Amino acid sequence: MPYAAYWLNASDETPLYTRHWAPEGPSRGALMLSHGMAEHAGRYERLGLTLNAAGYHLYAIDQRGHGRTAENGEPGHYADHGGWGKVIGDLHTLNRHIREEHPDLPIILLGHSMGSYIGTAYLIQHSASVKAAVLSGSNYQPVALYRTARLIARFERWRQGPLGRSALIEFLSFGSFNKAFKPNRTPFDWLSRDVQEVDKYVADPLCGFRCSNQLWLDLLGGLADITPVEHISRIDAALPLLVIGGDRDPVSQGKRLRDLAQAMTRAGVRDVQLKIYPEARHELFNETNRDEVIRNLIGWLDAHCPVRQAETTEEPL
What keywords does the record list, in alphabetical order (predicted)? Predict the structure, then answer.
């Protein structure tokens, strides 16, 4: 079937809602998606169908606390304990599932925003399990910033509890993102120049929610862990890596994507490519130039996933 949705059990038996967009013809590779904060994998249908037409599978889980996976937990909350390790482990579960279904296909990690951070942590631990990786809408900042932010998150957890939803954390993390796009039409103008895509996000009941204090603690601790170059150096030096984003994305402002690519290079990753799109905002795959973005992505994938030679049963002459 071109599309299927089902439940995949994580290592702790948490059911993960999983989507699979499959090409109808021969396959070149399979992408495993790690989506962003306060969204879900169903928003990547257009990307999945376009990848299918080029011969690629797209597998995507709704991460813990997100999408339909949140039906088996708490929306906006990874876990009460060990959440960061669990979301990394969920990607490994997805990777093994893809490998079981397609033992001969190269697997490519695609991480967007929060998913790029989880994806980087996954690469530090399991880069041998993938052929290549793409980080979209990512960021790179000093460890000291994450440690300071984590002190605030700790205070908010003490004040409100692990499941509290802090307006202070929301303001400090997302509060300034819309300022560059005044006059603002919605609180999420920073996501894309395409007003229809922004409106879809606003209208989606599974998007735009506030995350728990504990999730922020998990995430900020994870960011502090994946930032030091000596930790990044655990990624396979031969792994092809593509970093993409918009130069008007308030998450990175473009320049911090350059910082990320440079950190990967300093850590020893030899094949790092950087593509920053002028005027584009946070969600490249929902941007007005998305056709260009996806076309370039597929070109990069094709360069790293050669067409497999068809097997023949004919007798030699």
Answer: Hydrolase
Question: Does residue 240 lie in a domain region?
Answer: yes
Work out the number of other CB atoms within 10 angstroms of the CB of residue 4.
11
Residue 112 covered by a domain? yes
Neighbours of 267 (CB within 10 A): 18
Find how far residue 166's CA is from the centre of its chain: 23
**Which element (helix H / strand E) includes 245?**
strand 241-246
Q: Kindly list the distances between the CA atom of residue 313 and the CA atoms of 73, 77, 103, 316, in Å, as whole numbers in the listed order.
A: 51, 53, 21, 9
DSSP for 94-108, written as a single string = HHHHHHHH-TTS-EE
Structure tokens at 200: 């879809």
Q: Is residue 127 part of a domain?
A: yes
Cβ proximity of 98 and 59 under 8 Å: yes
Domain, as residue range, for 31? 3-141+226-304
Overall domain count for the chain: 1
| Pair of tokens at residue 246 | 């918009």
The CATH number for 52's domain is: 3.40.50.1820
Averaged over successive runs of 10 residues, the pLDDT of the chain (317 residues) comes to 92 97 95 98 98 98 98 96 98 98 97 98 98 98 96 97 96 91 95 98 97 98 98 98 97 94 98 98 98 98 82 40
Opening angle at CA 118, ends 234 and 258, nearest 5: 70
Residue 250 is assigned to a structural domain of this protein:
yes
Amino acid at 71: E
In 3-state terms the chain splits into helix, strand, coil percentages (rounded to 5) of 45, 15, 40
